[in-house]
Amino acid sequence: MHYVMTDIHGDYRRFIEMLDEVQFSEDDRLYLIGDVIDRGTENLEMLDFCMRYTNVFLIKGNHEYFMELTGRHPDFAMDWRRFGGRNTLRQLDRISEEERDMFFEYVESLPWYMVLTPEEVPGLERPYLLTHTGFLMPDDDRRGETVPAFCIPDFSGRIPFDVERAVDWMSRHYTWEYSISSDLYDLPETVRFDKRLLVGHIPVNSGHAFPPIPYMLERREYMDLDCGAAYRSAGGRIGCLRLEDMKIWYL
Fold it and tell me: 211 falls in which pLDDT band (50, 70, 90)?
């Protein structure tokens, strides 16, 4: 079975409870769509878990990217702390330099997206692209660089948008902007993707991009799986999706 979760934010204890709930085994595969660290208190435990198991696949989110930037530019730690990295930085301070380098190298190696096909996952009606934020609206003024035409969707919906090609280009050329983007939710419903997106980043209970809801947001072209685990006081929880039959668990 193939399971997908996102935005655990250092809640390792409940994460393990969820794996027990779905009866996750070594024969299954788990995809984590970013932000397994920060805000919570068991951040390195989350990274260590992802590193140890070959059937667990972590996709880079903005918080892993903040950690990567700090590994490359230590002065960024002040910004990372403001963005929710205080507890992760405290944990890093308590381990050896060799261990810190191991974690920094790991997050730097993470991909920005993964694609799953119906051949890999029986039950999928079309390919799925798993990524943390999902989309960045092209803007030539961002850095004075011309954005390729393939990054601009057909708003009429007549031509399916090659979302993998666009995400690949944007995540490499506009990495910071892509890592924190919420542009996906501003796209008109007429836009069609050639792959359905599974994303996180914007908690469904936050009201940041759409009216707050207590469950995963489902749209024709994408699903937002961030159930607000970092904000339990506001009703947040962890969600888990099984792709074979689209069954959802909450904890």
Answer: confident
Q: Which residues pair with 131 in a beta bridge?
A: 113
| Antiparallel, parallel or unpaired: β 222-224 and 217-218 | antiparallel
Contacts of 165 (CB under 8 A, 6+ apart): 150, 151
Contact at 8 Å (CB) between 209 and 141? no
Sign of CA dihedral 2, 184, 219, 8: positive
**Full DSSP string of 70-106:** HHH-GGGHHHHIIIIIHHHHHHHHTS-HHHHHHHHHH
Q: In whole angstroms, what is the distance from residue 132 CA to residue 128 CA?
A: 13
Predicted confidence (pLDDT) at residue 116 exceeds the cutoff of 90: yes
For 97, 143, 154, 173, the CA distances from 221, given in Å and listed in that order, are: 43, 29, 14, 24
Sign of the four-CA dihedral 42, 108, 81, 91: positive
Q: Which residues pair with 116 in a beta bridge?
A: 128
Q: Within a 13 Å sphere around the CA of 15, how many CA atoms are in the beta-carbon half?
A: 27
- Judged by DSSP in three states, 161 sits in strand
Query: The whole model's pTM is what?
Result: 0.95
In the structure encoding, which two tokens stand for residue 166, read together?
């666009």
